[in-house]
Fold this sequence. Notes:
The structure holds three protein chains of three kinds. Chain A is of the alpha/beta class. Chain A has helices spanning 9-13, 36-49, 69-76, 92-108, 125-129, 131-136, 148-154, 167-180, 195-208, 221-228, 232-250, 265-277; strands at residues 2-5, 22-26, 56-60, 83-86, 117-122, 141-146, 183-186, 212-213, 256-258, 261-263. The mean pLDDT of chain A is 94. By secondary structure, chain B is of the alpha/beta class. In chain B, the strands form eight sheets. In chain B, strands 3-13-12-9-4-5-6-8-28-29 form a ten-stranded mixed β-sheet. In chain B, strands 14-18-22-26-27 form a five-stranded mixed β-sheet, with helices on both faces. In chain B, α8 crosses α9. Chain C is of the alpha+beta class. Chain C has a single domain (7-87), classed as Ribosomal Protein S5, domain 2 (2-Layer Sandwich), CATH 3.30.230.10. Chain C is 34% helix and 25% strand. Chain C has two helices and four strands. In chain C, strands 1-2-4-3 form a four-stranded mixed β-sheet, covered by helices on one side. In chain C, α1 packs across α2. Chain C is globular, with a radius of gyration of 13 Å. The model of chain C has no long low-confidence stretch (mean pLDDT 94). Chains A and C meet through α1, α2 and α3 of A and α2 of C.
Amino acid sequence: MLYIPGNNPAMIQQGGVYGADSILLDLEDAVALNQKDAARVLVRNMIKSVNFYDAEVCVRINHLSTPFGLADLEEIVPLQPSAIRYPKTESPEEVAELLKIIERIEDKHRLPHNKMTLHAMIETAMGVQNVFNIASMFSRVDAITIGGQDLTADMNIIYTPDGVGIDFARKRIVMAAKASHIDVIDTIFPDVNDEEGLRRETEYAKKIGFTGKAVINPRQIDIIHDVFTPTDEEIRKAYHIVKEFQTNTAAGIGVFAIDGKMVDAPVVARAEYILKLANVTVA
Amino acid sequence: MLNSLGREIPEYIEGIGKLEPFQGALMKLGKGWMDEPTIPAPNRAYLPHQSKLCKTLEEAIIRSNPQNGMTVSFHHHLRNGDFLLVQTLTILHNMGIREITLASSSLNECHDPILPYLIDGTVTRIFSSGIRNQLGRAIALGVLETPVVIHSHGGRVRSIHTGKIRIDLAIISASAADCEGNATGSHGKSAFGSIGYAVIDARYAKEVIVVTDNLVDYPCIPLSISQNFIDHVVVVDSIGDASKIATGTTRITKSPMDLRIAKLAADVIEQSGFFVPGFSFQVGAGGASLAVAKFIREKMRNKSIRGSFMLGGITSYCVDMLNDGLFETIFDVQSFDAVVSNSLLNNRRHIEIPAALYANPFNCGCITNKIDVVVLGALEIDVDFNVNVITGSEGYIRGASGGHSDTASGAKLTVVVCPSFRGRIPIIKKRVHTVVTPGETVHVLVTERGICVNPAFKELEENLRRAGLNLKDIHDLEVEVDKITGIPGPLEYTDKIVGIVEYRDGTIIDVIHQLKEK
Amino acid sequence: MKPKIAAQSGTFESSDVIFLIEPMADNSGRKLEISSTVMQQFGESFHNIVTEMLDSYNLTDIHLIAKDKGALEPTIKARLETAIKRSMDQQEGTLK
């Protein structure tokens, strides 16, 4: 998930070539307060004409409490990008309000209500406390993300590379997403030159359940793919498990063992998930 | 007459002579010999204990007896930091010498000050592998009556052997030399590493002046240039601007675009079938080309693959790979940074080679013939994979043939890396403005928007396809890029020819017409 | 029509273009000063984009300066639209 500043034509026009799964055109923090109008028009024109290849296109708008949020929606909703990303989401009421406005604009343009989805960004202590309701109450919210920089600021703590300060928030947000069966994306890693640090943090994010990670520089994409893509060894094992499971099920056996380790339903589900990520079908 | 790429080549050009059209990369070489006779190198005699030392460059030039119509040669190992070419031509100009043929192995921005000498008739003909900046612009606009000749590094050696370039005076700058003219670029305050391009000049020029800013006690070793070919030795304060000759180490680009292209190119190399133990490798010195080395280095480590040799323009990055034990040897014809000079001087596996051994097609085998994988850049490439590295999108001459066509013709896998467009100008064309390297010697193009395999190489295409790489037909990519940028309006040219581009075997692969400025 | 105020949009970055717009006296016509790093190849197309958009906003008396560094068409149009809206004092949702 690649963040691209919404007022930077050079970066937007190349956004699709880096192999990111998703392009995030940012009208919020990456745009100066006196260039919000320019960025909005630029992003609108670019979405209409630039080929982003296989990447889905999302737009991060400004919060509705700012003078910019509504104008962003008026300009962007008619384009129906894959998703709108909403910053500093704090409560389900806020999401309901946002969806009402989006639907009003969609109605005006005779657009369906179920195509474009919503990503809620959790970036405040209040947002963390309300995250389960935000994640679970709306069918259009199909991903939540954590914004590490804003969250540390809101908590009045200093951001540290080990992420200790936001560790609880990370895990709580992951759990809310898992309980709601939606995606959950980890925050950006700010030091573009620290490849080792990025790898460590991404491995941690994967371990605790995140399904992806946001990046601020295309150079970070390969490492994240590398971490999240199952290794050949993992794929081989998963394939073996699913294959054995199919054979055993056919023979009416529920639980069995591979290399002395018990294989039951959750193990099979996990293996199936790995094969899905790797685009492998069991023949 | 048309050459085999469909380019119109005149049969004869005043001041150049008869032209032979390009007929295919290996057509002439296939015979096994060169039809053109080789001219003998001059012989001189020297008595014991004479002094070759001259007080000034001017004195040395006067001693070499300059004449109207003479040919003066230079090497370009000091790149954009060279002082001597401009100084020499200024001295000749002040002596009233006219109609000089300038035969520098390449020309850089720092040579712009000679432009007045092109205008006033001091210099009337140019042979070079590269021309840039103001000179490139002026030549494209027709400042010279006789077209310039663009040659490859290997082709230059051939042209000197055949007498197409007959050097009357060679100026060889060296960062260290002794009183007899033994000289090297591998040490001294202005060290520039290999002096490989100048070796043929020393052998063939009627008069040879070694110029140094670092006269060392006899003997100066290593004998990169040896005294038996040197007539005069001059000591000057400085042969060039050290900060522009060679700086510290070469850094890998941070441009996400270049890194993306490099990553894709490295994937192509890995899956090509040529990424095997003992493979040989050449990359360029900058941008995406050098960055390919970064990814190849990782892949070599991960797969425990050890290569044979690295060739060509050498950067500190190549030296690191040698020191890591990833390659056995470096063959160095041109060094790009200070670290390289040091390695060249001290590491016996880092070997200085002359241009003839590097790339001359007419001998018993230059080292480019042994290259497995080469990564090259492009100013433009067309749907037939012909590459332009000499004329820019605005029609000026602003690049260099260099070793591009030499290495492409020798390599088992020639990978061209470039962005699909630069500053709104599409790089992939229906037809490049000027062909330097023929498409038959280019195997694959790697851009940020896709990988295009030359359809002549079916097995390669199959290997890459099986590995799941994103392959596109080059025609489709050309259309795709045009859609992004819009189709640029055409440049306008006159009938006058301002440059001819020699293929490495001496045949003419293309000509450059005079640009009409809008 | 003519712009109300002088306005500017865009940046000097590569692949971007900067527009400066100034009002002119009534019936003085359009004064366009376009410079571009790709003038030779795209000068005409650039000029056409500008003219068409000024027509669509009915701007007849205007001084426009453009400095282009190879912006693609959607960028040129976005920057010009922003400059025009700013010059007519119609910007929405931004700090000035």
